[in-house]
Amino acid sequence: MSGIFLVTASFLASAVEGVEALTIVLAAGITRGWKSALVGVGAALVVLAAVTAILGPALTLIPIDGLRLVVGGLLLVFGLQWLRKAILRASGYKSLHDEAAIYQRELADAEQGHRTVRAGLDWYAFTLSFKGALLEGLEVIFIVLTFGATAHQVGLAAVGAAAALILVTLAGVVLHRPLARVPENLLKFAVGLMLSSFGTFWAAEGAGVRWPNSDLDILGILAALIIVSVAYVAVLRHQRTSTELQQAA
User: Fold this and answer.
1) How far apart are CA 211 and CA 56, in angstroms?
2) Backbone angles phi, psi at 33, to 5 degrees
3) Where would a tag sit more exposed on the chain, N or C end, judged by fewer CB atoms within 10 A?
4) What are phi and psi of 171, to 5 degrees?
5) Residue 149's closest CA among 38, 46, 10, 43?
C-alpha cells in the first residue's frame, strides 16, 4: 500500500515542479533562443546529477530511526506549507496559481532582459533556464531521495518522478506552450496532503511510535488531514463572505 502512495506522491510533486520549470524554460527559449535555454537546462541537470550522487549514498549511512525522524519532520514542515497555501487559495484568501499569467510575466521579463552573448550563448536565457531547472529539480531530488531512503524504496520514488518529468517534457515539446490547463492548484493540495501524511507517519515512527496497522495507518492520517483541511476551507470561506457582506453594507 505504501508503495502506491510513494509513487503517487512522487509523481504528483514532480509534476508540479516540472510544470513550473517548463514555464520558465519555454519563456527563455521562445524569446531569447533555444540553444542558450537548453544548454542552461543541461548544465542544471549535470549539477543535479552530482547532488544526487552525493546525497543518495550519504542518506544510507544514517540509522533508519534517526532518518525517519529527521526526514519525517522535514516532510511535515514542507507539506504543511504546501497545504496552508492550498487552503488559502481554495478559500479565496490567496490568488490561484495561474501558470498562463506567470508565463506571460516570464516572457515580458525575458524580452526586456539585457542581452549579453558570450561563447555563442545568450547568458540571460542560459541563467534563467539554469536557475529554473535547478531550483525545481532540487525539490524533486529532495522528495525522491527522502521518500525512497526512508521507505527503502528509492526505485519506486524515482519511477514516479521520472514518469512525471517525462510526461511534462513530452507535453511541452508537443504543445510548445505552458501547461496552463493542468489543475496545478488541485495537485498542490494533493501533494501537501500526501507530504504531510508521510511526514507525520515517519516522524512518529522515528520517535518510537509503532503504528498498529503499519503502512495502512497512512490512510487514516490522510483521511484526517483531508477532513481538517476541508473544514478549514469551509470556515475561511464563510469568514471571507461575512467580511465582504459587512464591508458592502
Assistant:
1) 27
2) 120, 135
3) C
4) -65, -40
5) 10
pLDDT in tens, 115-173: 666 566 778 888 889 998 998 888 888 888 877 777 777 788 888 889 988 988 888 77
Domain of residue 89: give its range. Answer: 2-248
Task: Report the distance separating Cα 246 and Cα 156, nearest Å.
Answer: 52
Asked if residue 41 lies in contact with residue 133, where contact means CB atoms within 8 angstroms, the answer is yes
Among residues 201, 172, 159, which one has the least CA distance to residue 72? 201
Would you say the pTM of this structure is higher than 0.85?
no
Q: How far is CA 114 from CA 28, 33, 122, in A?
A: 13, 14, 9
- How far is the CA of 88 from the CAs of 82, 97, 102, 166, 194, in angstroms? 10, 11, 19, 30, 18
User: Which residue has cell 525575458?
Assistant: 110
Tell me the Cα Rg of the chain: 20
Structural domains in the chain (count):
1
